[in-house]
Amino acid sequence: MHGSTLPGFLFSGETLEKFLAAFFDRSLPKAEWTHAAHIALAAYVLYDADIETVLPRVRTAIRGYNEAVGGKNTDTSGYHETLTVFWLKVVAEKLEQLRPGSRLDAARGAVAAYGEARTLSALYYSTDIVNDALARREWVEPDLLVLS
Fold first, then answer.
1. Which of 6, 66, 99, 117 could form a disulfide with 78 if both were Cys (CB 3.0 to 4.6 A apart)?
2. The predicted structure's pLDDT at residue 148
């Protein structure tokens, strides 16, 4: 992560498991649900599965978590399908390169690569995909660069 240290939840397999358990049971404090946490979640679930398998679980978990911490999932806030699929694709590609030996290694490698890369999608989309209502509801293919 550009010379910085990895988040504390990546200290050990146990800290990662506890962190993600808190996300899934919706007890994780909202302030801890960062971009790096999203990336770690993606790497964790993709470690031994593909995007098609994990997407329904991730979609449901993020939507439920958003609501649990007082957010709404609307055309202007909350869950974003295109960004979720985008990041799952980016992280899956990184894991293919890294071939990590554990979920922790997968999460560490993905967060080291993309934990601070919140705006990476802007290289792939000519429009403001973050604020696009259609893209929030459904997957929109990139129009500048191709994702594998």
1. 66
2. 74
